[in-house]
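REVIEWER CHECKLIST
Item 1: Sequence provided? yes
Item 2: Single chain? yes
Item 3: Sequence as submitted:
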Amino acid sequence: MSSHIRIFGARQNNLKNLDVSFDTGTFTVITGVSGSGKSSLAFDTLYAEGQRRYVETFSPYARQFLDRMDKPQVERIEGILPAIAIDQVNPVRNSRSTVGTMTELNDHLKLLYARLGRLFCRCCARPVKRDDPESIRQDLALRSSQQGDPRLVITFPIAIPANFTEEEVRGFLDQQGYVRIHHEETRERPAEPASRGKNTKKGSGRKTAQTEQQRILHVVQDRFRYGNAETQRVMEALDTALRQGDGHITIHALDDEGEDAAAWRYSNRLHCAQCDIEYSAPLPSTFSFNSPLGACEHCRGFGRVMGIDYDLVVPDERKTLREGCVRPWQTPSYKECQVELERYAAPAGVRLDTPWKDLDEHERQWVIQGDPQWKGGNTAWKTQWYGAQRFFDWLESRSYKMHVRVLLSKYRSYTPCPACGGARLKPDATLWRLGGHLSPDVEGGRARFLPVHAQWSEDTLRQLPGLSVHDLMRLPIERVRSFFNELTFGARMDAALDLLLTEVRARLKFLCDVGLGYLSLDRQSRTLSGGEVQRINLTTALGTSLVNTLFVLDEPSIGLHPHDMHRIVQVMHRLRNNGNSLVVVEHDPQVMVAADRIIDMGPGPGERGGQIVFDGQPDALRSASTLTGRYLGGHLRVEAPRPQPVADNTPRLILEGVRANNLKNVSVSIPLGRLVCITGVSGSGKSTLVQDVLYPAMLKKLGRPTDAPGEYDRLLGDDRLYDVTLVDQTPIGKTARSNPASYVGAFDAIRKLFTQAPLARERGYTPGTFSFNSGDGRCPTCGGTGFEHVEMQFLSDVYLRCPDCDGKRFRPEILEIRLEHLGRTASIDEVLEMTVNEALEFFSGLRDVQRALAPLADVGLEYLRLGQPVPTLSGGEAQRLKLAGHLVETKADAKGLAVKGKLFLFDEPTTGLHFDDVARLMRAFRRLLAGGHSLLVIEHNLDVVQASDWVIDLGPDGGEQGGQIVGAGTPTDLMAIENSHTGQALKEYADTIIRASEGGDAYQADAAPPATTRLKVAEPAAVYLVETDDDAAGSPLQSILRRRRAGQKNIDILNAREHNLKGVDVSIPRDTFTVITGVSGSGKSTLAFDILFNEGQRRYLESLNAYARAIVQPAGKPDVDAIYGIPPTVAIEQRTSRGGRKSTVATMTEIHHFLRLLYMKLGTQY
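Item 4: Structure as written out by the authors:
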């Protein structure tokens, strides 16, 4: 096999006919400015071809359901490996998706709970288990000996049916030999709904009773003293009584006078005999909130419901009732409610001139719930105070009207579901517990979840063994891992359970390895950052244990603090040392210097990029003249233009007593009018503080609908701000109809200018005529897209330039309209082909267009064409386009800036940005600050942290070890704090990462890396040392392992027991031609196909989504102890059957599928 992947003539997107080769088994980083062609080379060329070629080995039916990558524009690619991509895209926007469902841990957990969970009664908290005659006999022996061997009476219950008399039932019992009745009792049971007769009037029936009386006879099966009775007699009596009593029996122990001294109840069903409560048998779906069987019936498995939020109804608690603190009643439509409130308040003793926050609970309840003596009916609305709740209930009854639904939406928010307590499951599912008594460090002092219908005290709940499924979901993953490491099942363990436990432990270990131990399994997937999603997907790649596979990663360092960067580097080195090839698109210098090779794309973005400007070792890049090299070598820096120091009298926004999630009653003071960074390791509480508390708290102060903010005491200083905007990592739209001009609103102004052209006025054209999304001006053939989409079924889709408009999107008569300005003319399609710079020059002096386009140039997107479809932008370009959109909005709001500013909250705005792009971003930030706005940025990028005016560092660590303010001050102040990981990272950044080159030759694609120097990553401190190959002491562990495995290129199968194999150990060399032979039935196909092929294909399919796996249905795991060193596999089998009459050479070779597609697309009917 070739040891190189060679690409010839790559022309994908902006690539300039590149020829490049990658050594297999190496770790290569591709870097460069945003839009220089990194993703085009890594994902659109390398990954697309590797994945496409391997998926081609599946059947045409299966290929329809797998992700079909477009064939890259390349002359040829040689030596390509099967490829797996791990990118930042979070495809999930559904509240049902959680970390547990993404990692498929929920699927394993529900199997464990269904098979090994223990049920505890919701009333008495005793274990509920099925009894059988043997277990009952053993319990009887113990109890009888403890009570002096009393006389026992075994009875079973018989219910008297409604259509039988007691005499008839007793007669039936006499016929079977049961002549003694121990006692009778009467129970209440739910009444069965009576069937409606055909003569019954629809509304005439009176309310029937909810319960009905049922008589129970307790029939005597046998009487004896246990000490005198034979075992056979006892077992026969118990067995018969269980059968006759429908699984329920009661054994009465009599005293010396023949009266009942005790009654012992047993059942062979999931029935608490003491409380007489029947429970249903568990199924795996019982513990799944995505199944109708397990999901809470009230909230449908979402864990929360929509309701009226009275914090929105009364947004300003400083106002009085007379001043109109109840907001919905201040509109002309409902002003009468305010009048009625004031009329009824005085007789009820409710103060009208006292601020809402000072009213007592009784007064507030009167306003909200109404008169406690509410009588109901139409007259009550005219004579009594109905309250805000009945007002909203009345609105709900009129919600068929659009304006009422809009009004209600302003006062609604999500609250935990009252029926399940937020557990998402039916209440009975939370009664099942897994495991025994736990060591204190597993739960970490967290309060356990009390099932909503359980009548347990807090002490009883704490003393119960194990954890419920919702307890497990709420724990951080690192604690879940500790729980499963302690978990043992003794004699109940079998092969299937062992497989389940092993898989769960492995997945939890990988999640902790990549630094995600602070997440909980019930964290919603849509709230995860791009970096967290990618690291979760990376755990799947680790779990596959494949070799000879190409892994393509997109900035795995996103969202990771520099202190934790060694974790992701270790994971990538582990993948490489297993014999895989890694190609990583990355901007973080700590990852760059840990690579074997760096390819720097450039020299500029867009059309100015697409070339390789550097190809060599990391240390050699420091002395290169490329943009990346100059930043990495310390020749250029991300400077802070016009820094603004924070003084004691600087206005501040103060948030006090924040206790949401892991935050430990922290109070933060945020200087206004400054660039403030919130830093800290992953899981330290940054997103909780900004997104879950500060942002919704500010929205509530502004009177806007939002989710309830996390727990906090008060917010001060918000009166200095007129608005708040959150710019998170949500990707911008991916429709091909969206372009930079329409995104920032410039296209609206441009279309208005075209309508003022003389010919357009003459023809009566409107702005809609010049839209390619609607109206009569767009090309009718392609609908304004400029291309035709050809569906190719099992092949990748094809996009062809529209033959009618030649890709110009508009009708010919629309293109006749030309806009004249400053001696130049252009049609609408020519304007869309202009770059931002060209458009700024063409439309100079036209204020509306200039105002919309200028932010694009401010954030460094001056090279984009106005009509370039948004899906073709790189990740960094899309991030900056989103920022430009917010800058345009700010310019439009500029009228209010003289008095108040706007608060911008940014969540990692440097995602996908190169050093030079970050420098441009900082300049755009300073323009916002100059306009009187305030910036609060969650950031790990040390260049941005260094250039900020003020830093608030959370920590010291993630999860439960975080949630405190480690330090607040300037970046220099932070460096002096010993336990601040951010401060120490800032100190080391300039010393060890950004430094001058120490030598190193350019990397030759056809040769091994030079053995003169090698960079290594130290463990937690992330210090990079230089050592020679001759000095083995102090070598990185990855280097040692790599050297050891260098000569081991085998597929090792240990203890294969599949079918007739007798514990076989086999070592098959890779990259060689191996023949397996033997007599028929000796196990050749079992070894080659059932083990080797099935396992190789199964591991590759594990990297695909669950939907694709459900279609392809990979084979199960073979019966072996372990398989090491297996690559993705392809099988070419001999046909074991002749096939049907419809099977031909054409269908077998798949030529038939291509022919029918060809005839469908190009055939002519005669």
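Item 5: Key structural point noted by reviewer: The longest helix spans residues 495-513.
Item 6: Recommendation: ____
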